[in-house]
Amino acid sequence: METIAAERKASKLATKELTYFLYGGEEMVLRKREIENAVISDPTYDITKYHYLTREELFEQAVKKSVHSITKLMPELDILGVFERHSLTSVIGGENPLSLHTDMFMPTITGQGSDEQQEKWLPLATNYKIIGCYAQTEMGHGTYVRGLETTATYDPVKQEFDIHSPTLTSIKWWPGTLGVNATHAIVPARLITKGEDKGIHNFIVQLRSLDNHTAMKGITIGDIGPKFGYAEMDNGFLKFEHVRIPRDNLLMRFSQVLPDGTYVRPKTSSKLSYGTMVLIRAGLSKFSFEMLSRALTIAIRYSIVRRQTQNRPGEAETQLLDYVNQQHTLITLLATVFGIYFVSQDTIQLYVKTQSQLNEENMELLPELHASSSGVKAISTNLASQGIETCRIACGGHGYSLSSGFPFLYQSTTPSMTYEGDNNVLLLQTARYLIKIRKEVQEDPSYSPPDNVNYLTEAVRPRNINFRSPQHQLALYQCMVRACVDRAATKVSQGEKIGLDYFDAWNAAAVELIQCAEAHTHYVMVKSFIENIDKEEVRNMSPYNQFILKCLSDIFSLNYILNKSGLFIEAGAIYGRELNEIREVIQSQILEVRPAAVSLVDAFDYPDFVLRSVLGRKDGDVYTAMWEWVQHNPRNKHKNGVHPVYKKYTRKLLRAKM
Ligand SMILES: CC/C=C\C/C=C\C/C=C\C/C=C\CCCCC(=O)SCCNC(=O)CCNC(=O)[C@H](O)C(C)(C)COP(=O)(O)OP(=O)(O)OC[C@H]1O[C@@H](n2cnc3c(N)ncnc32)[C@H](O)[C@@H]1OP(=O)(O)O
Ligand SMILES: Cc1cc2nc3c(=O)[nH]c(=O)nc-3n(C[C@H](O)[C@H](O)[C@H](O)COP(=O)(O)OP(=O)(O)OC[C@H]3O[C@@H](n4cnc5c(N)ncnc54)[C@H](O)[C@@H]3O)c2cc1C
């Protein structure tokens, strides 16, 4: 306890200033804390026994908490907007089994429903007269949305759609909130009218009775069973047997079916019906920041408190964070989490900007948003999932206990590499965009590409390189990414030249394509970090905070260069002989950050309640917390301290003659 207090005292970081910066100002932080305190002081959200609950208990508690939040806490705290709602969900912790209602069902209606449809459905949804989910994925198809098999066949006589699951593989499988709770779903299905298949469109379908919650006629529905994690979420299955819905349950903002069955195609892009996926992808980098920053808070605090090995006679054992390997592991991750933070802010801004253009039927930014949000979602969820596991390992044996908080963080984060688009698949979408822009640049010298891909027109290694210079770092990335894009494009075109069809040529280059998308996205993240810490808000910070952010930026940028040095050397961006200098700059910046490490994670401002970790306690009283935790273990609570398995099994073994 004294050690962590001493660390805080010695740190020169203006912690409060950084917290305000991260959350968008003092007012936002005060509001966040108001929400946290309301949750912490309400017994409904008690977490004392959380880690010992069974799957069914976890689910029931989570639904109870969610309903309590909607009916009591949210009105009391006047929570309306998406950010405050997420803030509340985040402090309550665990999964929110009703989250898909507000995160996907409602945004799909807002984004894709006509004005009349919004007027009809949104008040019902806002007031929880109905509970919605987003039922897109089927047993046979998740990635390949165009391959979904559920049909919606228009009947002009009754002016209804007939929703049907024609095959076993067409059964909807995975959607959250579907298994138990939802009364309605957004159902992407193949629209068939006048005998023609018009592709995937979104429909609103009622699943359960609003009187007694039983399944509607023609609907078979349930929960898909235990998963890797996500016990609190009712991921479900859904089978349709010719279910009838009115014509105007087709979401008709972009395309329509007229009463006689005439199809009116979207004026602009058919991909607008994928809009909800783009929204969540943009939000997932923020989610990655939250999950990884919690893991780092736990690992860094623990690494201050934990001592291991007396290295000099008569002195205290060494703090884990004073081992250079531990510093390297955790402080490079600290730099990463700030990288994710800045790019998540930029991605959300790009989403908002694109959305306002789309409202004016201007599609200009859509390809960039799709490519960028796909890449950023993939890289930030990869980094967060791997980073949480790294934090666990950095905490030794105690990291493996549920009480460390890591298992929950990992289980909640790792599926984000799959849902909302598998990460490899999304990186291939980013690559598709890069290859397309490269082609345009080559074919039309007057074409000026978007800022983030400008390196495709020019990328030059600076002379007299200074690895501490952000502009030089960016130039090195530009050379490297350009070479990666060239390599992938060349591989595709070589395949085509030897007679492969488009798919085979593309598939043969898949590894290079994913590599170029990854490299590009890392470049975008480094650029975003560098640009954001050059903004006025940061320039107004205390000099020491600016200095630490610059150190973290260098670490983030240079550590990737070191880890992927093969790519940079192959591109002629750096020479092998320069690697030592890069190592030294990283090492010296890590040493600069070390004294501020605990204040940096304090700046994330997570109360103990949110971390749910005996290792990550703010006061550092780790060992007392471990002892308290074990007192709740039901396995220790049997008469005379003797567990029933003794009578059932081990006693026989101990007395058996063998
Ligand atoms: C408010 C909430 C905010 C934040 C929330 C934050 C945190 C949330 C925390 C936790 C979340 C909790 C639970 C999440 C639950 C998860 C829910 C789901 O998983 S829903 C299901 C998601 N499914 C997918 O993502 C499927 C992935 N597949 C696809 O997206 C597509 O099929 C594909 C892979 C992109 C391919 O599509 P398609 O085959 O149709 O397209 P092509 O490859 O042929 O490309 C054609 C052309 O279209 C362009 N394009 C493709 N997609 C888009 C798009 N979305 N937008 C714009 N343009 C798109 C593509 O680039 C091509 O363009 P071209 O090159 O031809 O110009
Ligand atoms: C916890 C969780 C919650 C979910 N919630 C929802 C929800 O609310 N609503 C909903 O509709 N869905 C939901 N899903 C489903 C999720 O969106 C899909 O699982 C996801 O999009 C991946 O699709 P898939 O399962 O078909 O994977 P697949 O496409 O089968 O992918 C398997 C592997 O094949 C590779 N692969 C596939 N296609 C290609 C390709 N074209 N090129 C190269 N490689 C390829 C992938 O990289 C991956 O490694 C959820 C899933 C999970 C795990």
From TrEMBL:
Cofactor: FAD
Superkingdom per UniProt: Eukaryota
Record's keyword terms, sorted: ATP-binding, FAD, Fatty acid metabolism, Flavoprotein, Lipid metabolism, Nucleotide-binding, Oxidoreductase, Peroxisome
Signal peptide annotation: none
Family: Belongs to the acyl-CoA oxidase family.
Binding residues annotated for FAD, in chain numbering: 137, 176
Residue ranges annotated for the Acyl-coenzyme A oxidase N-terminal domain, each copy included: 15-131
Source lineage: Eukaryota, Metazoa, Porifera, Hexactinellida, Hexasterophora
Pathway: Lipid metabolism; peroxisomal fatty acid beta-oxidation
GO molecular function: acyl-CoA oxidase activity; ATP binding; FAD binding; fatty acid binding
Cellular-component GO terms for this entry: peroxisome
Domain Acyl-CoA oxidase C-terminal: start-end pairs: 470-654
Name this polypeptide is given: Acyl-coenzyme A oxidase
Pfam families per the UniProt record, alphabetical: ACOX (PF01756), ACOX_C_alpha1 (PF22924), Acyl-CoA_ox_N (PF14749)
Localisation per UniProt entry: Peroxisome
InterPro entries tied to this protein: ACOX_C_alpha1 (IPR055060), Acyl-CoA_ox_N (IPR029320), Acyl-CoA_Oxase/DH_mid-dom_sf (IPR046373), Acyl-CoA_oxidase (IPR012258), Acyl-CoA_oxidase_C (IPR002655), AcylCo_DH-like_C (IPR036250), AcylCoA_DH/ox_N_sf (IPR037069), AcylCoA_DH/oxidase_NM_dom_sf (IPR009100)
Ranges of residues in domain Acyl-CoA oxidase C-alpha1: 274-435
Residues of the active site: 420 (proton acceptor)
GO-annotated biological processes: fatty acid beta-oxidation using acyl-CoA oxidase; lipid homeostasis
Protein species of origin: Oopsacas minuta
